UniProtKB/TrEMBL annotation:
Domain Plastocyanin-like intervals: 39-150, 164-314, 419-531
Protein location: Secreted, Extracellular space, Apoplast
Species for this entry: Ziziphus jujuba
Chief place of localization: secreted
Stated name of the protein: Laccase
Cofactor, how bound (note): Binds 4 Cu cations per monomer.
């Protein structure tokens, strides 16, 4: 996942049927938060730099609510650039104005200005996260969102003794704006992360690192902890584990799943997983670690980040704590084995609603194309510019935000409502793609419209254009059912036979397998706009 992902977009603009909507009545609570965006000095790997933070923290503050609550978050920008904040995985029914992506649902909050988001929690329960949504600002300006069950309800699993967030992120010694601007200017891949972090700390294995640069998770022998794991790393899928401890995954993307007992997870960028972990080993130090799953020729930093699980009590800690038995960096089988186990809880209390009759179906080829740079040499392969595309369209960010353009019916010059439901060229997507590797994508801002209430199916087809790799896809405003994945080219007659329409996982982010496909389904029940990106 090292390749540059120019943001890509697919829009769903639902027709607004406001009369038909019923307001939910809930005994919801209101919360107020103040976020101050500002440059803050941090030192990691013996490098000191100023970086954009919220309230001076890395990771930023946690938002804690109960299901159905509303949070008002006043964001004041004391930084140097315009920034927005996105509430990743919060569906915000009928409230797209507070979703956050820059130039999609709002203009950036300029330095010296502020904006209050009204974040409406509805069906989500578990863990999500928030992040800045302008250029690469999300690398440092991000934090957890914890959504507890409503008052009077409990978890559909044993009540944990304590809850902790475990946020995985990337550390860059360089200035992030500089990295982003260089990459955008030259069309080359952005520089790689210098380290990964757990709760802001890189652990013990990098340069200038030791026990004091590692996050310590204090545990008492015999107790069970709920760890809310968030992958906020920049475009890197991660294997994660705890040495000599199994754990049980109970939720993903703020929806409960059938418990999976395992000694590792594979978590895609943007995903969250809640795991129950019991401190049931000899009191000592144990490493918790995360390192990339990178089954690709694209470069990445593959070093592990570590934290220390530290039992209470008196004992002599080992000189080198045991390290978890994580799958190899390129172990696609291990990644698939974990991901394929995920099932929705799907019981009477947490039912599923999987569309079975499809109204709108979209087949979407994902490629990392190249744009030729006439008369000049760009920094990508063969002097070209890298440009990711969906159905051969590379997204171009409009100057007016799309939601405003739609609302005022002034789409001209902002977007065109013609995102194709099929790729323009059918080729052997996962085979020898021949000339397609340099096929110039069309640059545009294209929207697809979906009727309110329609059952939508999207088949994502990975391609070998550029480097074949696993592509994380994320949809704003919805969780969707991941009904199937497979390898090779999607086959309309055979592939759908393997669909799980009984208890597929309900998620907001998936990894489309390398050399493979993934199918999602959802009801278009959130009028406004939805942004899809990878
Ligand atoms: Cu999101």
């Amino acid at each position: 996942m090292g390749l540059k992902k120019m943001d890509l977009i697919l829009w769903f603009i639902g027709f607004l049927f406001l009369n038909g909507l019923v307001e939910l009545s809930t005994a919801a609570n209101i919360h107020h938060y103040s976020f101050i965006l500002k440059e803050t000095s941090f030192t990691r790997l013996c490098t000191t730099k100023n970086m954009l933070t919220v309230n001076g923290m890395f990771p930023g503050p946690t938002i804690t609510v109960r299901k159905g609550d509303t949070a008002f978050i006043n964001v004041h920008n004391d930084g140097k650039y315009g920034v927005t904040i996105h509430w990743h995985g919060v569906k915000q029914p009928r409230n797209p104005w507070s979703d956050g992506p820059e130039n999609i649902t709002q203009c950036p909050i300029q330095p010296g200005k502020n904006f209050t988001y009204e974040v409406n929690f509805s069906s989500e329960e578990g863990t999500l996260w928030w992040h800045a949504h302008s250029d690469w600002s999300r690398a440092t300006a991000h934090g957890p969102i914890v959504i507890l069950p409503p008052v009077g309800n409990s978890y559909p699993f044993q009540t944990p003794y304590q809850e902790k967030t475990v946020l995985l992120a990337s550390w860059f010694n360089e200035d992030l704006k500089q990295i982003y601007d260089n990459s955008t200017a030259t069309g080359a891949e952005p520089d790689l992360a210098d380290a990964y972090t757990i709760n802001g700390w890189q652990g013990v294995s990098y340069s200038c690192s030791n026990e004091t640069t590692a996050y310590h998770l204090q545990v008492d022998n015999g107790n069970t902890y709920l760890l809310r794991v968030i992958n906020a790393a920049m475009n890197i899928e991660m294997f994660f584990g705890i040495a000599q401890h199994n754990f049980t995954v109970v939720a993903q993307d703020a929806a409960y799943i059938k418990p999976i007992t395992t000694n590792y997870i594979m978590i895609s960028p943007g995903q969250t997983m809640d795991i129950l972990f019991t401190a049931n080993q000899k009191p000592s130090y144990y490493f918790m670690a995360a390192r990339p799953f990178a089954d690709t020729t694209a470069p990445s930093n593959n070093n592990a980040t570590t934290a220390i699980v530290q039992y209470s009590g008196s004992y002599t800690p080992p000189l080198t704590p045991p390290f978890p038995d994580l799958p190899g960096i390129t172990d696609k089988q291990a990644a698939d084995n974990f991901t394929n186990q995920t099932r929705s809880l799907a019981n009477s209390e947490y039912p599923v609603n999987v569309p079975t009759k499809i109204d709108k179906s979209i087949f979407m080829a994902i490629a990392v194309n190249q744009i030729v740079c006439p008369g000049q040499s760009c920094g990508g392969p063969d002097g070209n510019r890298l440009a990711a595309s969906l159905n051969n369209i590379t997204f171009s960010t409009p100057t007016l935000d799309i939601l405003t353009a739609y609302y005022w019916n002034i789409s001209n010059g902002t977007y065109t409502p013609d995102f194709p439901s099929r790729p323009p060229h059918i080729y052997n997507f996962t085979g020898d793609v021949g000339n397609s590797t340099i096929y110039n994508p069309v640059v545009g801002t294209n929207v697809t419209k979906v009727k309110y209430g329609d059952a939508v199916e999207i088949v994502f087809q990975g391609t070998n254009v550029g480097s074949a790799e696993n592509h994380p896809m994320h949809l704003h405003g919805f969780s969707f059912y991941l009904v199937g994945t497979g390898s090779g080219n999607f086959n309309a007659t055979n592939s759908s036979q393997s669909y799980n329409l009984v208890d597929p996982p309900l998620v907001n982010t998936i990894g489309v397998p390398k050399d493979g496909w993934a199918t999602i389904r959802f009801f278009a029940n959130n009028p406004g706009e939805v942004y899809m990106s990878y």
